[in-house]
Amino acid sequence: MTTATQADAAGKVNYEFTHTINGKAETSKTSFDVINPATATAFAQCPDATKIQLNRAVASARRAFPGWAKKSFEERRAYLHKFAAAVRERSEELAALITREQGKPLSNALREMAGTANSLEQMANIELKDEVLRDDGKNRISMHFRPMGVVGAITPWNVPVGLASHKIAQALYAGNTLVLKPSPYTPLSTLLLGELSRDILPHGVFNVVGGGNAVGQWLTKHPGIDKISFTGSVATGKRVMESSSGTLKRVTLELGGNDPAIMLDDVDIAGATAKIFNGAFGNCGQICMAVKRVYVPEDLYEPVLEAFAQLARNHRVGEGFEPDVQMGPLQNKMQYDKVLDVLEDTKRQPGVRIVAGGHPLNRPGYFLEPTIVGDIGDNTRLVTEEQFGPILPVLKYTDLKDALARANDTTMGLAASVWTKDIEKGAKVAAQIQAGTVWVNHHVGSEADIPFGGFKQSGLGREHGVMGLQAYMEPQIINVPLQQ
Question: Could you give the CA distance from residue 396 to residue 375 in angstroms, rounded to a whole number?
Answer without folding.
Answer: 8
